[in-house]
Amino acid sequence: MHKEEQLQQLQDSGIVAVVRRPPYYKAIEIADALVEGGVEALEITVDTDRAYEIIAQLKERYQGRALVGAGTVLNEQAAKTAIDAGADFIFSPILDEATIRLTNQYGRISIPGVMTPTEIAKGHEYGADVLKIFPGSALGVNYIRELSAPLGHIPMMPTGGVTLDNAGQFIRAGAVAVGIGSALTDRSAIEEGRYDKLTELARQFRQEIYKARQEGEV
Fold this sequence. Notes:
By secondary structure, this protein is α/β, with parallel strands linked by helices.
């Protein structure tokens, strides 16, 4: 699948599930539960134990049915290791030009973290495919709405503090997708092995995003 098709898949899904530091022996079950609920882009943060092994295993498992990427990537060395493991996208909390350029060089999706209008414009100029607006909930829905007026041509994805209550609001405000962490990867459900809870949460998030897109800007 070409990068353009993968990017379309990510935006159509509307969700990047942020899977941060899962126990290695539970990672497949967590990912399967999320994919069953309709998630088509999984981010494994590189501060996870055996993160690159998990990325490689999930990439082989889903064969394009879901994108598998690396998160919390701070530099081009980590990006290259993740890409060698098969990562479809590189998700960063910061804006690092070298990481963006390396990711593009290998034909993978680049999603750096930005906050200000200047950083958003710079990231776009460097070649980022989507700009991760971070921290999303601290900046708020109105921040995305106001950014969308002058910078609406740049795809934006708020991440951090996205919940069932605000996911649809972010989409209506102009976000192409949202990155969702703890609100989707419910810690107690994972500890208790209730993976069906993750599947149900994923379905609820997908429904909120679908509804928001149907309604459009309010």
